[in-house]
Specification:
heterodimer, A: 106 residues, mainly alpha, B: 192 residues, globular
C-alpha cells in the first residue's frame, strides 16, 4: 500500500519527455532512411507536446494546451510536405538514403 | 492508480520510441510509432487534456501514421535495412554522446530550476485561462482560449494548411512527370 500513496509528479513527466526527446534525437542522427528520420522528428515533437501539457497542468494555464494544438497542426502540414518531397525524391532515385541526397548540403 | 497508469504509459512510450529507431523494417517503425503516440495520448488524458488526447489519436495515430504507411507501401521501401554496418565511421558513438549531452542538459535545467510545481498556483495570474477550476470542461476552455487570445494564430494556421495542400499537389504533379512513367515515349516507339 506504500506504492499506492506515490503519485507521479510534474518532474516525472518532464523526465519522460526528456527521455523521449533524446531517443528521437538519437534516431534522427543514426538512421539513414528518410522516412524513419521523419518518424524520429515526430517522436521529438511528441516529447515537446508532452512537456507543454505537463506545464499547462502544473501551472494551471490553458495556454500550454493551446500551443500543443498549433504544434499538431504544423506537424500535420509538415508531414504532408515532407512526404511529398520524399515521394518525388524516391521516384527519381529509388532506394535513396539521406547520404545519397546530400547534394544540397552546404 | 495514477501511478500505475503513468508507469504503463511510460513503458509503452519508451518501448515504442526505441522500437522506432531499432526496427530494420520501416513498417515496424511506423507501428512502434503508433504505440508511442497512443501512450502520449493516455498521458494527455491523465493530465486533463482530453481534447488533445482525442486529437492526438485521430490526427497522429489515425492520419499521419496511415500517411506514412501509404508512402512506405507506395515507394516499396519496406524491405529490411542493414543496420549492422556503420557507413560513417564513429557516427553512432558521436550520436549517442551528443544525445547524452542533450539529456544531461535537459535534466540539469530541470534540477537547477526545480521548484515544486504542485504547490504553485500560477494559474490565478494567467491571462488565458485555467486548466482546472469551476466548470472544468476542457474542450470549452481550449475553444475559448483559441477563439479569443489566439484567434490570429488560428487564422494563420488555416493559411498554413492551404499552403501545405498546394505544395503537396505541386510536388505530386512534378513526380508524375518523372521519366519513370514515360508512356508517351513508349507509344511513340511502338508507332515507329
Amino acid at each position: 500500500m506504500l506504492l499506492a500513496a506515490v503519485q507521479p509528479t510534474t518532474t516525472w513527466y518532464l523526465v519522460l519527455g526528456a527521455l523521449l526527446f533524446t531517443i528521437g534525437a538519437v534516431g534522427l542522427m543514426v538512421r539513414r532512411n528518410p522516412l524513419v528520420m521523419f518518424m524520429c522528428v515526430e517522436l521529438m515533437l511528441n516529447a515537446v507536446n508532452l512537456t507543454f501539457v505537463t506545464f499547462a497542468k502544473a501551472l494551471d494555464d490553458i495556454g500550454g494546451q493551446t500551443i500543443v494544438f498549433f504544434v499538431l497542426v504544423v506537424a500535420a502540414a509538415e508531414v504532408v510536405v515532407g512526404l511529398g518531397i520524399i515521394v518525388a525524391l524516391m521516384r527519381r532515385r529509388p532506394g535513396a538514403t539521406a547520404d545519397d541526397i546530400s547534394v544540397l548540403k552546404g | 492508480m495514477e501511478l500505475f497508469v503513468f508507469v504503463v504509459a511510460a513503458a509503452i512510450i519508451l518501448c515504442g520510441a526505441v522500437g522506432v529507431i531499432i526496427s530494420r523494417n520501416p513498417v515496424h517503425s511506423a507501428l512502434s510509432l503508433v504505440a508511442t503516440l497512443f501512450g502520449v495520448a493516455v498521458l494527455f488524458v491523465e493530465q486533463d487534456a482530453h481534447f488533445l488526447a482525442a486529437v492526438q489519436v485521430i490526427v497522429y495515430a489515425g492520419a499521419i501514421v496511415v500517411l506514412f504507411l501509404f508512402v512506405i507501401m507506395l515507394l516499396g521501401v519496406d524491405q529490411s535495412e542493414d543496420l549492422e554496418t556503420d557507413p560513417l565511421a564513429g557516427q553512432r558513438p558521436l550520436a549517442v554522446a551528443a544525445a547524452a549531452g542533450l539529456l544531461g542538459l535537459g535534466l540539469a535545467t530541470l534540477i537547477l530550476t526545480h521548484r515544486d510545481f504542485d504547490d504553485v498556483a500560477i494559474g490565478a495570474q494567467s491571462a488565458v485561462g485555467q486548466v482546472s477550476g469551476a466548470g472544468s470542461d476542457n474542450v470549452r476552455k481550449l475553444g475559448e482560449a483559441l477563439f479569443t487570445n489566439y484567434l490570429f494564430a488560428f487564422e494563420i494556421t488555416s493559411v498554413l494548411l492551404v499552403i501545405a495542400v498546394v505544395a503537396a499537389v505541386v510536388l505530386a504533379r512534378r513526380a508524375a512527370e518523372a521519366p519513370m512513367f514515360d508512356h508517351d515515349a513508349q507509344t511513340a516507339e511502338a508507332d515507329r
